[in-house]
Amino acid sequence: MTFNASDDGPRVGRGRPRNPAIEARIMDAALLLYGRMGWQGFNLEGVARGANVSKDALYRRWKTREALLESALMQRFDWIITIDNGNIRDDLLALATRTFDVFSGTYGEVALQLRTDARRFPDVRAFAAPYREMMVLQGRGIVRRALDRGELPAEAKPGLIMDLLIGGITNHIVSTPSHLRDRMLANANIFLKAMVDVVLLGAQLLGKSDS
Fold first, then answer.
1. What pTM value is reported for the model?
2. Is the pLDDT of residue 68 over 80?
3. What is the distance of C-alpha 54 from the center of its chain?
4. CATH code for 78-209?
């Protein structure tokens, strides 16, 4: 593939101005490549080919693949939100909906790759950690507030509730065959409400079984 020799636009004065359109192409190409190939197959050369820019255009902005992927995640991922609706069901449903949107959306494969690669590669773990930690803290905060309000039995375990909810959602997305994906997306609200209700029922039964 022939790269565009003027991919940064015309020179103005000293140096070259940043071109937002070029950077947007690079961000998209970086996440597309990472989502498809994972960390082992992610490199600046592949991103340059995908974005149709020169390698020099990349190296002027990002010296390493770690810096490029971290930058792409910061610009394209906005999955960290604050959830506090005053009751456990609405909070868990909001978290479940956000999780489903992230893992089934445009960059869903990226989110799934991060979960896998963060366990295998220290470099990925370092810049994926803030996203994971915020999601964990969000979930644990939801459950602890519910415990304080008396909505859950004292025996309820925040980690277990989050594992069941988030694990169930991601497994549902990954295990759904491609020919049923449209149906999965159309029925997402029904599935998520049922998932939250099952998790809450289990938490309530845990308290009764120990009484």
1. 0.78
2. yes
3. 28
4. 1.10.357.10
